[in-house]
């Protein structure tokens, strides 16, 4: 691929545009990527067609170049041979950045606007990464409700982050964004960090779920779907929002990322409560 890229650049400076050679080369590069996406789907069940192409392709090509590999084929062969590299690559493309109590406005709005309207507490954190979001919601609810009545289903497509989440052990840096009152109440100091206390761990169930392929859980009172849909193409987003509606109880809430607001929420059957907070019509 990089040989081809070099030829591509050379041609760019020597040939007038539009030129058939350039068009042929760009089609070839595109075909490599098309082939690679199909291979990744076979290996992992993840359909890269549903992720925004420009962003994803750039990330993958950076990764290939970081590993000093020649082309998509060589890279695919490495992924087939080495399960560790495959897991690492999935981590890289799925972007696991997260933190406790991310987007502070949401947690305040949860307390002030959402909690007073909730009667039961089935919550789904649907791209939970290493678990910080799921534990944040469990701690917030536990301030007001008996933990016996709190069930947080936390899902992600990436098994590696789920394994970290299940342990519930975080570094001192990671818990910096946890409000002081929760830090002392819900974490225990251990030799390898700060462990979420048993009472909170028991409220959260972690499970693998691919938002682009798997069936969604039903009867949810609140869905947190934050900082994931920005990576998906529009058709996928619309389908996911429509499926969330079926997952929510009437009146159930949906939090999206601050940059992922729903445009046609009314037509889809949602009402808007605040910026990036919606709820299902009562019907
Ligand atoms: C940026 S993190 C967001 C974590 C958390 N929701 C937050 O806002 O801090 C995005 C997560 O989405 C997960 N993800 C990517 N593609 C997914 C898919 N198709 N289905 C489910 N989760 C996916 C990634 O593994 C990653 O952990």
Compounds present? S-adenosylmethionine
Question: In the residues, how many domains can be counted?
Answer: 2
Classify the helix fraction into a percent range: 40-55%
| Residue runs with pLDDT of under 50 for 5 or more positions | 1-18
Task: Tell me the CATH architecture of the largest domain.
Answer: 3-Layer(aba) Sandwich
Assembly status:
single chain
Average pLDDT works out at: 89
Please provide the ordered H/E string of secondary-structure elements: HHHHHHEHEHEHEEHEEHEHEE
Q: What is the beta-strand fraction?
A: 15-25%
The strand order across the widest sheet is: 6-2-1-7-8-10-9
Terminal residue distance: 54 Å
Number of strands: 10
Helical element count?
12
Radius of gyration from CA coordinates: 22 Å
The name of the CATH superfamily of the largest domain reads Vaccinia Virus protein VP39
Describe the structure.
The chain has helices spanning 2-14, 20-44, 53-66, 72-81, 83-94, 104-114, 132-142, 159-167, 180-186, 198-201, 234-247, 265-268; strands at residues 121-125, 150-156, 169-170, 187-190, 193-196, 204-208, 220-225, 248-256, 270-274, 277-280. It is an alpha/beta fold. It has a seven-stranded mixed beta sheet. A three-stranded antiparallel beta sheet has the order 3-5-4. Helix 1 (2-14) packs antiparallel against helix 2 (20-44) and helix 4 (72-81) packs across helix 5 (83-94). The model is unreliable at 1-18 (pLDDT under 50). The structure holds S-adenosylmethionine.
């Amino acid at each position: 691929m990089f040989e081809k890229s070099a030829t591509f650049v050379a041609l760019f400076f020597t040939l007038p545009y539009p030129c058939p050679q350039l068009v042929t080369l760009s089609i070839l590069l595109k075909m490599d990527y098309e082939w690679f996406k199909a291979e990744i789907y076979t290996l992992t069940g993840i359909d890269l067609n549903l992720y925004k192409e420009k962003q994803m392709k750039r990330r993958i090509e950076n990764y290939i170049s970081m590993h000093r590999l020649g082309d998509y084929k060589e890279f695919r062969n490495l992924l087939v041979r080495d399960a560790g590299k495959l897991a690492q690559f999935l981590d890289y493309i799925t972007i696991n950045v997260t933190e406790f109590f991310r987007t502070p406005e949401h947690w305040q709005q949860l307390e002030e606007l959402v909690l007073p309207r909730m009667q039961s507490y089935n919550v789904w954190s649907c791209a939970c990464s290493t678990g910080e979001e799921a534990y944040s919601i469990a701690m917030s609810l536990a301030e007001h409700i008996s933990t016996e009545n709190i069930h947080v289903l936390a899902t992600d497509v990436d098994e590696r982050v789920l394994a970290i989440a299940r342990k519930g052990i975080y570094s001192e840096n990671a818990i910096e964004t946890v409000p002081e009152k929760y830090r002392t109440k819900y974490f225990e100091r251990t030799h390898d960090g700060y462990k979420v206390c048993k009472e909170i761990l028991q409220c959260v169930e972690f499970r693998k779920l691919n938002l682009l392929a798997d069936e969604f859980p039903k009867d949810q009172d609140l869905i947190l779907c934050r900082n994931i849909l920005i990576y998906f193409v529009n058709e996928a987003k619309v389908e996911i929002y429509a499926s969330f509606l079926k997952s929510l109880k009437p009146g159930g809430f949906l939090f999206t990322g601050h940059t992922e607001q729903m445009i046609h929420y009314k037509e889809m059957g949602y009402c808007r409560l605040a910026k990036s907070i919606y709820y299902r019509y009562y019907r």
